[in-house]
Write a structure and sequence with these properties.
Blueprint: E1 3-4, E2 14-15, E3 19-21, E4 44-45, E5 49-50, E6 62-65, E7 68-71, H1 80-92, E8 98-103, H2 107-118, E9 125-129, H3 136-149, E10 153-157, H4 164-172, E11 177-180, E12 185-189, E13 195-201, H5 205-217, E14 224-227, H6 233-241, E15 246-249, H7 252-255, H8 257-267, H9 289-298
Parallel strand pairs: 3-15, 4-8, 5-8, 8-9, 9-10, 10-11, 11-14, 14-15
Antiparallel strand pairs: 1-2, 6-7, 7-13, 12-13
Helix pairs in contact: 2-3, 3-4
């Protein structure tokens, strides 16, 4: 089940399963590789990377909420060059496409980042993170600057709640697809009594984003990827039913990494509910057809000692 998730401009991104981790929850691909089968995912979306190194935020970084969590990290990373040099070899061996999430602050950084990424065969596509307070016209300038300097397939992750007009502006500037949305920003009081601002990860985000997906899909001439509040295969399917071509899973990956694989198997058409020949009470949620066959082939036969 192959899905093309970007427009066919200079290049396009095609994935085998319409499920991927959201930027910021999956590291650079090494943290979860012993917990899930990466080949079951559609693509790897990396942690956010900036052109120059960024330091972590000070003070409280995580505040539990009644239904979710508020996270403020400051997007720490060693910078684009060091990230590429560190992970290039691993990315080149990945069984799935690598989508580097690039955060830029202006059009000049977009050009510099694009030129550096263009040299790397291990990076299949780029997801550009747009600042929350950016006007649509400035976002379009940054997208156009990136497209001018790179042939890579480009996805743009939009700030939470922006309009269809904003989405159209970045698509007209050359974005091959848009992600709706980056997690919303909020403020909460930490255990020490201080008010902390950060991004909110919660199941309650899903109904809000789902509505926008349905509205924006009808307006724009590019694929839309849904993201926010996905905690089950049914949640992910709701996004596809609303018109999204694929989904990105965020905080569920922290809670139960294996569920990311299960959702990917489900939406990829690999999940079965009961193996052939099983007893009525033998169920294997999330077990794919390929996994079933492997287990059958690995099972000892009567002739085995």
């Amino acid at each position: 089940m192959s899905v093309t998730v970007t427009r066919s401009n200079k290049s396009s991104l095609t994935i085998d399963t319409p499920v991927m981790p959201a930027a910021g929850v999956f590291g650079y691909g090494d943290e979860y590789r012993d917990l899930i089968q990466l080949e079951k995912l559609g693509a790897l979306v990396t942690n956010p990377v900036t052109v120059s190194a960024w330091s972590p935020s000070s003070g409280t970084r995580v505040v539990p909420l009644e239904s979710g969590v508020l996270v403020h990290t400051g997007l720490p990373n060693p910078g684009l060059n060091k990230v590429i040099n560190t992970y290039r070899s691993m990315w080149s061996r990945m069984p799935i496409p690598v989508v580097l999430h690039l955060v830029i602050t202006n059009a000049e950084e977009a050009k510099r980042g694009a030129a550096r990424i263009e040299e790397e065969d291990s990076i299949t596509a780029v997801e550009l993170g747009i600042a929350d307070d950016l006007e649509a016209s400035e976002a379009a300038k940054q997208v156009a600057a990136f497209v001018e300097a790179s042939e890579k397939a480009l996805i743009v992750r939009l700030p939470f709640g922006v309009s269809a007009d904003f989405a159209e502006a970045v698509i007209d500037a050359g974005a091959g697809a848009v992600v709706l949305y980056a997690p919303p920003r909020g403020t909460a009081r930490d255990a020490g009594g201080r008010l902390v601002s950060g991004r909110v990860y919660s199941p309650i985000v899903k109904p809000l984003v789902l509505r926008s997906v349905g509205q924006i899909v009808r307006r724009v001439n590019a694929p839309v990827i849904g993201a926010g509040g996905i905690h089950s295969a049914a949640d992910a399917r709701d996004y596809l039913d609303a018109g999204a071509v694929a989904v990105q899973v965020d905080s569920l990956t922290w809670i139960n990494p294996k569920m990311l694989e299960i959702i990917a198997r489900d939406l990829g058409g690999l999940v079965i509910t009961q193996p052939l020949g099983a007893l009525p009470d033998e169920w294997n949620p999330g077990m794919g057809e390929t996994e079933r066959r492997r287990r059958i082939s690995d099972a000892p036969t009567k002739e085995d000692p």
